[in-house]
Amino acid sequence: xxxxxxxxxxxxxxxxxxxxxxxxxxxxxxxxxxxxxxxxxxxxxxxxxxxxxxxxxxxxxxxxxxxxxxxxxxxxxxxxxxxxxxxxxxxxxxxxxxxxxxxxxxxxxxxxxxxxxxxxxxxxxxxxxxxxxxxxxxxxxxxxxxxxxxxxxxxxxxxxxxxxxxxxxxxxxxxxxxxxxxxxxxxxxxxxxxxxxxxxxxxxxxxxxxxxxxxxxxxxxxxxxxxxxxxxxxxxxxxxxxxxxxxxxxxxxxxxxxxxxxxxxxxxxxxxxxxxxxxxxxxxxxxxxxxxxxxxxxxxxxxxxxxxxxxxxxxxxxxxxxxxxxxxxxx
Length: 331
What we know:
Blueprint: E1 3-12, E2 17-19, H1 20-24, H2 31-38, E3 42-44, H3 53-68, E4 77-81, H4 93-100, E5 106-110, H5 116-130, E6 135-142, H6 155-158, E7 164-173, E8 178-186, E9 194-195, H7 209-213, E10 220-221, H8 223-244, E11 252-257, H9 262-272, H10 283-286, H11 293-303, E12 312-319, E13 323-330
Parallel strand pairs: 4-5, 4-6, 11-12
Antiparallel strand pairs: 1-7, 2-3, 6-7, 8-13, 9-10, 12-13
Helix pairs in contact: 3-4, 8-9
C-alpha cells in the first residue's frame, strides 16, 4: 500500500519587519492594543521590493532543497496555494515553476485562503496514493501587505496580516506513516464576511476608478463573525479527524492550527482541553500569513525539535470562503 508522507518542510519570510510600534505611527493603535486583541507583536512585509508569492516560494524551496538534499528534478508535480497570486490570471504556479527551474511538471493552483495549506496537502496526498506521482511540492505563499490600508479605516485588517511562504515535499512511501486522513469543508453563505471582491469578472471592466477609490480591491473582514465561526469549526474538524482514526487528544503530540489570531487559538485550546505543550503558536512573530501560516508553523516546529518519528500531528485551518479542514498525520 502506498502512503504519502512529508519528507521535508521549509519556510521563508521577507527581511523587512513591521512592528506594532511602526503601525502606531500610521494609524490610531498601539502595541498593547494589537497584542491584547491578536497576540501579534510584528509581521514581515515585502515592502517596496515588488516580490510576489512565487518569489517568496522560490526562496523557501531553495532552503528546502539545501536542508534535505533534495534534487529538484525529482519533483513531478506542484500544488500552489495562495489567495494573493502574482497575476490576476493565471495563478502563481507556472511563474514559480519557471523561476525555480523545475522541469515542465504539472502545477495546480488553488485558492482556499487560510485553508490553502490543508487543502494542498490533501490534494498531494491523494495524487500520491493514486500512484500517479511520487514527489509533490506543496506551496503556501502570500503577499498580503500590499493590499492593506495602513490608516485608521483599514486598522482592522492592517494589524493582522503578514507576508511569507512555506513549502513541503510530499513523497510516496510503503512504510506505515504519513497522512492518515483529511477532512475538508466549506460554507459559501459567509463569503461576504472575509475576502477581496475586486477585481471581479462579474463586473464590466473588472474594476473601476470608483472601486479603487472605495478600496474594494483591498481585503475586508467582519472580525466578530469570523471569530464566532472559527472557534466553532476548529474544534469540530479536529475532533472529526481524531474520531475517524480512533484517536483522542491524548494520542496527539502537537496541534498546529492556522495562525489567525491568538485569541482564536486559545479558545480552541480551551474547547478541546489541549495542554500548552501540545499546541503551537508563532503568530506573535509573523501575524496571519494566510495559506503560508500552517507551513511556517510546521517548519518551525521541526526546527525546534517538537515533532519526532511516529508522533501524531494535527493540522487545522479555517478562513475565507468559509473553508476549513484538518489533516491528521503520523510522522
